[in-house]
Automatic annotation (TrEMBL):
Residues 147-212 form the HTH luxR-type domain. The keyword Transcription regulation applies. This is DNA-binding NarL/FixJ family response regulator. The modification 4-aspartylphosphate is found at residue 54. It comes from Streptomyces violarus. Keywords: DNA-binding, Phosphoprotein, Transcription, Transcription regulation. Residues 3-121 form the Response regulatory domain. One of its GO terms (molecular function) is DNA binding.
Length: 219
């Protein structure tokens, strides 16, 4: 059973998402919160597998709530997925840096919402949508100073796997590109996460862009 926490200051959004998720036999909405502070309290109380958190909220916004969840060892099993609108791209990369596993646009279709919750619960990153490429392109146009020293411990194959993951490729797609098995691709990614002390795949991707290992595609 996948346990989900909903954090959004709009009751209609919460009730709509709950109605969809409660229809699934393997998903349970364990709690709802109207702001990040309340969401943090409920995350500690219920220890959900997935927390769907709005970016902009009163009292404590979603990015700060995500940052605190990511920093709390007791909440290591909570995978945060940010909820955003199309016009808020500038916040999404900051959310990934804070520790979010990915993000969803609020007008997502029901099938994609269910899939996203399942993907996040497995610990995978939600980095495929085209909006991600746009925000990364905008972010790295003038990136903050970053050192590639942290990547020196990676093997050449691990570097290649991380760079491909940063472009949104799944382990299977990475395996096809590198002509290796999906299990070997997963091993490369997991070892890179361990060496770089990345909380999850999303933070690994952030590191790849900040260090210059990965660069945005045009278009």
């Amino acid at each position: 059973m996948i346990r989900v926490l909903l954090v959004d200051d709009q009751p209609l959004i919460r009730s709509g998402f709950r109605a969809l998720l409660d229809l699934e036999d393997d998903i349970e909405v364990v709690a709802e919160a109207a702001d990040g502070e309340e969401g943090l309290v409920l995350a500690k109380e219920h220890l959900p597998d997935v927390a769907l958190i709005d970016i902009q909220m009163p009292v404590m916004d979603g990015i700060e709530a995500t940052r605190r969840i990511a920093a709390d060892p007791d909440l290591a099993g909570v995978h945060v997925v940010m909820l955003t609108n199309y016009g808020m791209d500038e916040y999404v990369f900051e959310a990934l840096r804070a520790g979010a596993a990915g993000f969803l646009v609020k007008d997502i279709v029901p099938e994609d919402l269910l899939h996203a919750v399942q993907v996040a619960a497995r610990g995978d990153a939600l980095l495929a949508p085209s909006i991600t490429r746009k925000l990364i392109h905008r972010y790295v146009a003038q990136p903050p100073p970053a050192s590639s020293a942290a990547l020196e411990g990676l093997t050449s194959r691990e570097r290649e796997a991380v760079a491909l993951a940063a472009q949104g490729l799944s382990n299977g797609q990475i395996a096809d590109h590198m002509v290796i098995s999906p299990m070997t691709a997963k091993t490369h990614i997991n070892r890179a996460m361990t060496k770089l002390h990345a909380r999850d795949r999303a933070q690994l991707v952030v590191l790849a862009y900040e260090s210059g290992l990965a660069a945005p595609r045009n278009g």
